[in-house]
What we know:
A: seven-stranded mixed beta sheet; globular; B: Rossmann fold
Amino acid sequence: MAGKVLAFANRASEQIGEIISSPELEARLDRIPTRLSDYGVDAFGFDPQYVKRVIGLGAWVYRHYHRCEAFGIENIPDGRCMLVSNHSGQLPMDGAMIAMAMFLEREPPRFCRSAIERFVPETPFVSTFMARVGQFLGTPENAKRLLEAEESLLVFPEGVRGLNKVWSERYRLQAFGTGFMRLAIDAATPIVPTVVIGAEEQSPSIFASRTLGKIFGVPALPITPTLVPFPAPTRYRIYFGKPMVFSGDSNDEDDVIRAKVDTLRSAMQSMIDEGLKAREHVFW
Amino acid sequence: MRICVTGISGRLGRRVAQLLRRKHEVVGIDQRASPGLPANIVHHQVDIRRRPAEDILRNGKFDAVVHLGVVHNFRIPSEKLYARNVIGTETLLRYVSKYKIKKLVLLSSGDVYGPMPTNSHFIGEDAPLMASQRFPEVRTLVAVDRAVQSFFWRHVDIETVILRPAHIVGPHVRNAPSNYFRLRIIPKIMGFDPIVQLIAEDDLLRYIEASIEPGVRGVFNLASTDPVPLSRILKALGKPTLPVPYPLFRGFLERAWKYRLTSFPAPELDHIRFNAVLDTARARDELKTLPERSLYEILEPFRAETVDD
């Protein structure tokens, strides 16, 4: 018994050490392609030195908390690309885990950038944190500029609709926006359909309260078993599909763009269905 | 060339005149006195809105007008500021077209876009001018810029240039950003570290000179430095900083401004709160002038050790 406790304490201290500083992660970070100015940040404020201090925690959550498995990581091309993913689980852990998969599993490692909500630039500390770890305000101009700089973007076309959906809607893709598709066509960017299995169960929402949502300034406040959403340690399975290239006129009518979006959406839905079939247990 | 410079008595106006007189004939218009100008610069102490100014432009045979006479002092009551900036500029524009002067250069400001939380990261020259949405006192600066923009479209035979520089910083400059760097203890907003750009006064002068060249027209964003986080600037200055929560900082500045204890208007806090990065690609491609000052050269006169000497 004492031996078991000791072994556990050993493992825990090793992991804490890794969170604080890990030469392996720092070496990977030095290999990601960046465009830094003389001041050590890129034009959008991404700062690899800052990321060094926080990436240990991300890697720990990826490896030991959600115990993520990534499939098809080789489908992520070099150069500009857009990862389009389902969004779920009340808290945007899925975005962080996709980014960690690209950073930890891909050779060479890449960093991916996702759009932050409009209220973030006005929020102290969060605004700085998000900028330093490479996130950007989701305007079409910003996204286009990043793609033209051969960066990879992570997009959740369901937005908050996907993140906040209730338990009965789990693993059913919600309505997609179309802006990302216009952007992908415009910037001639391959789309990597990405699905995350396991995030839905981390914090099931029994009921989404619109009234409470109004008070907190969000579309609907989820009521979860833990009251305040907190992610349970479900196992994540992240699937990266073959890149899809869409062409045509990026400024075409909504119906034409919508048809392309639907092609992508149904491909992603079947990836989700297959992933669910292959899964044997939510936690293992 | 014969060049008419408005606002010649200001700190920047004098330096522009000194630079241009090497290759050009310079005539200044300013309602303020201007002692100590070099002998070969003629200075007319008149208000641009008054009758004598028209005669100067009518008989001056100018090849270009450089309009620096836009007032940024927000202590001036708003009607007066409006008259001086907007009516003054409209009057000048009328003379430029009436007396067929071939070139007009306006020194506007990168501030006209406004530091907004919803701005795209890079601001191009065609971005909307939103500054007065959060800071109504700057509306005359926006109105001047718009008046000259519409002049640009109405008079295709006149080469109109609008320069929109980032924060101008220099040892002789007395504007908000330079004064901010001069503080002994620099307050900053807790939890915010915006990406900013500076332009050295010297670089701005070079750009003004370049924009007088025949063939140059249009709107140009100007900066000396790559986008840089404010925290890096403060670190390079080597001065102690004081993080203050935004509501507290704003409340303090509003009161201090009211009782004339500060020269910083509270809404200008947005400049050290939100990103404002100018896309300067056009200036690089078309003005054929590159900035020569690095960030560290710009900051040198403001550094802790320098100030203590």
